[in-house]
Amino acid sequence: MSQTLNEDGKTKLSKWGNSNATRIPRNLIEQLGWKDNENLSINIENNSLVLKPLSNRPANIHELFAGWKDDGKRDTELDWGESKGNELKW
What we know:
Helices cover 12% and strands 20% of the residues. It has two helices and four strands. The protein has a two-stranded antiparallel ribbon.
């Protein structure tokens, strides 16, 4: 598939198998905070295509647990049993 992205932000719709495809410039992807292989929904709104991420995945463990509240039910470490594979020795 051969496409040219012009400096003025235009892109070209090209045949790709039984579908059509276009490229989204890297700077736009970075501005949106999207990642490679992001799952997107695609819809038609006001005669335009609208792409939206299906979910906002956390970028790190801090984002993953940002809203977590401790329920206070644990006061010791949990015993997960004997090692069964390549677990790290702590």
